[in-house]
Amino acid sequence: MKSNLPLVEKFFPCKNCGASLRYSIKTGNLKCPYCGYENRIEEVDADLKEYSFKEALRVLEKTKFPPLKEHDAKCPSCGAIFKIEENIFSGKCPYCGTFVVEEVRDFRPIFAKSLIPFLIDRKKAFLIFKKWIKSLWFAPSKLKNSSFELKFIGYYLPYWTFDSDTKTYYEGRRGDYYFEDETFFVNEGGRLIEKRGSVQKIRWRFVSGWVFRRFDDVVVGASKRLPRKIIDSLSPWPFEKAVGYDEKYISGFKGEIYQIGLKDGFEIAKLYMNQVIREDVRRDIGGDRQEILHLSTIYENKTFKHLLLPVWIADFKYENKNYRFAINAATGKIKGERPYSKWKIFFTVITILVLVAALFYLGDKYGYLFEEARRASSPYY
Ligand SMILES: [Zn+2]
Ligand SMILES: [Zn+2]
After folding, report:
1. Which value, in Å, is the radius of gyration of the alpha carbons in the chain?
2. What are the sequence ranges of the domains in the chain?
3. How remote is the CA of residue 269 from the centroid of ligand 2, in Å?
4. Is the Cβ–Cβ distance between 287 and 202 less than 8 Å?
5. What are residue 322's DSSP bridge partners?
6. Is 321 helix (H, G, I), strand (E, B) or coil?
């Protein structure tokens, strides 16, 4: 079958013996596994320039790029045609073992100008996984003692980062506590005794106002390979370790193109920004309680960057179910799906219920002590 994509495949033969090279995490170079020759990568500074969101959208509107399905690649070493999976732009020739990296600009109008290289190797990733499994709360005991056969695959996943100035108008309610003298009843030895004391009340009033915030590098995964809650919680990323894009870094890993476009990516970033803005609004409202009734935000000076970030992905099997997890291959942070022990949760809930019941019993029996203590500490009594 012939490929209908105008592809340029790159590969990296050893300068000494001609063998196909893959990136070495240990040395940060392409070290030949056959003759040991170090094929240095000329490191280029990362291009971490911010690009205008508006201008990019204008360009994107004029270009249509189809989804990248499973496609053919031609091995530049032996000439064989082989398949590269959906959304991936690198692979290994199954006939001669050559690592091939395709030109991303053939697939997408926006392509990564920078990446953070893999800093954590497979061995370390496995140790991180083992430590994680041991640390999980409410995990079945059997899981912690299981041995796992893991197949780690190294991906360069596409990510957007967004900057934006925000202006938010809000309407809401502010609640302030006050105390009022009231008559109430207390249970003393089975008899209800009438007492008078101060009781906490709340006074609500309508408020409105503006809050402003500048967001810097809100990170949004542009891949659909992993659930959002995994892909976006691998942050923070050490952007100071980014380098200029070079296909040589991808050799031996899977490079992925973005499947969540610039516009949709910004919509996800808005959700993250909104969480911070809501906190700002609550602080701005002040008082003892806050209620947000309406928010409207204007996003200005929107800029973005597009990068490839290194992630180890694997899954483990436990009682016939697969659990996916990912490791930030620059920092070692791990996030993933995991099994829960129903029994452990059940017994914890029972223990809490027993404790609460005991407190109620004691409260009922010695309630007057609490009442006395409350009064002694209340400045209003
Ligand atoms: Zn060599
Ligand atoms: Zn080949």
Report:
1. 29
2. 1-42+66-107, 48-64+110-136+146-340, 343-377
3. 41
4. no
5. 317
6. strand
Residue 80 alpha carbon to ligand 2 centre in Å? 5
Contact 157, 313 (CB under 8 A): no
pLDDT attached to residue 3: 45
Residue 112 CA to ligand 2 centre (angstroms): 26
Cα-based distances in Å from 286 to 167, 207, 224, 275: 19, 10, 40, 17
In one-letter notation, the amino acid at residue 302 is K
Confirm if 252 and 91 have CB atoms less than 8 A apart: no
pLDDT tens track for 217-268: 999 999 999 999 999 999 999 999 999 999 999 999 999 999 999 999 999 9
Distance 32 CA to ligand 1 centre (A): 5
73 CA to middle of ligand 2, Å?
Answer: 10
| Inter-residue contact 177 to 201 (CB < 8 Å) | yes
- Characterise 367 by phi-psi region: left (phi > 0), alpha (psi -120 to 50), beta (else): alpha
Which residues are placed with Cβ below 5 angstroms of ligand 1, an ion?
14, 16-17, 19, 32, 34-35, 37
**Nearest alpha-carbon partner for 150 in 340, 332, 333, 317:** 317
The interaxial angle of helices 342-365 and 367-377, nearest 10 deg, is 80
Q: Coil, strand, or helix at residue 225?
A: coil
Q: How many whole angstroms separate alpha carbon 119 and alpha carbon 121?
A: 7
Residues paired with 169 in a beta bridge? 210, 296
Angle at 239 between CA 233 and CA 244, to 5 degrees: 125
**225 within 8 A of 155, measured Cβ to Cβ:** yes
Query: What is this structure's pTM?
Result: 0.85
d(CA 164, CA 344): 45
Distance CA(338)–CA(348), nearest Å, equals 19
Could you say which residues of the chain have pLDDT below 50?
Answer: 1-6, 380-381
Residue in this structure with the two tokens 């709340």, named with its chain if needed: 202
